[in-house]
Fold this sequence. Notes:
29% of the residues lie in helices and 17% in strands. It is of the alpha/beta class. The termini are far apart.
Amino acid sequence: xxxxxxxxxxxxxxxxxxxxxxxxxxxxxxxxxxxxxxxxxxxxxxxxxxxxxxxxxxxxxxxxxxxxxxxxxxxxxxxxxxxxxxxxxxxxxxxxxxxxxxxxxxxxxxxxxxxxxxxxxxxxxxxxxxxxxxxxxxxxxxxxxxxxxxxxxxxxxxxxxxxxxxxxxxxxxxxxxxxxxxxxxxxxxxxxxxxxxxxxxxxxxxxxxxxxxxxxxxxxxxxxxxxxxxxxxxxxxxxxxxxxxxxxxxxxxxxxxxxxxxxxxxxxxxxxxxxxxxxxxxxxxxxxxxxxxxxxxxxxxxxxxxxxxxxxxxxxxxxxxxxxxxxxxxxxxxxxxxxxxxxxxxxxxxxxxxxxxxxxxxxxxxxxxxxxxxxxxxxxxxxxxxxxxxxxxxxxxxxxxxxxx
Length: 405
C-alpha cells in the first residue's frame, strides 16, 4: 500500500519545479514611496523631517507620522515662529500638503515668509585641509595652545548631527521663491474667515477651536489622508502647523486669568487632534505661549496631551544676552517630553544642556558648553567674587575648604 501511494504521488511531484520554496519575496511597502519620509531604526515608525537637522537628531531621527510636536514659545515668539516656518518649508520642498492655522497674522503672511532652500554643498561642513595646517608657521600653532590643565580633556562635540542625511538646509536671510510656494497645496485657517458655531460634539471647546478641528477633519477626510480610506492616488503626508494656540486672540483666557473659565478648551482640542492624527498620515506642530499661562498644572496637562514637547528660552531682554558665558548662543532649549511609540522605553537625548543660535543663514541647536576661561577683565571680576565668597564661607566656619586659583 505504501508503494502504491508513493507511485501515485510521484507524477505530481515531478510537476513541481525543483527551485520552488515556501518563502515568498517581501514586497516593497507603499509608504516607502512617499517623498520626504523614512523609517526609524529604533521603533520602525515612519518619520518626516522638521526642516532643522539638529532638531531631527534630538527627536530620534525626525517627527513620527501621527504625532504632535508642542513648542513652548519664547517671550518674543521669534525662534518658535522660525521653527514653524522651517517645518512648513520642508513640506513644500518634499511636496507634502500643508495646513496652516494662525490668528495673530494671516496664514498667507506666514506662508510668504518661508526660508529659501539652499544647496547641500553650501551648508555641509567641509573638513579642514591638513596640508594648510602643516604650512602654518610654528609661532601661530604655539599661540593656539591652551592651558596645560585643559589640554588632556576630551574635545566637546557641540554639533548635533547624524551619520545619515535627512531633510534639507534653508537660508533664513532669504524667502522662498513664489514659484516654489505656488506649487505647494496649502490649506489656511484664519478665525475671522471661519465663523464659529457651537455643537453638541464639541460642547467643552471654544467656537474657534471647534471650527479649527472641524476644518482639519474635513481636509483629512476629503484629501484621503485617513489610513483606513481607500484611494487610487498615491499617498502623501499632511503637515499641520498651528501657531500660538491658547493666546487671547483665539478667544481663550488661559493667558489672562489664573483660574480661566475655558480651562479645558485647549486640552479638549488637543485630545481630539491627537485622535485624528493617530489614524491618518498627518503630523502637527503646535506652538503655545507657555510663559503667559499662569497655571503650571494646566500647562502640564497640555504637555502630556502631545507626543513631543520642547521649550525655547530666549536670551533677548535678559542678563544672559550680554553675559560673556553665553556670547555664542541666543537661547536655551529644554526637552519637556519624548514619545513612547512601539517601544517600552523612548529614545532619550544623550545631552540635556542644549542651546540654540541663529547664524547668518541657519538656525541650529547645539550642546551647551561654556569656555574654560574668559577674558582678563571677566576673570578678574569672577576672581574677586569668588574670593569674597570664600572669605564669607571661612567666616561661617567653612575654613576647611580650599579654593585653588
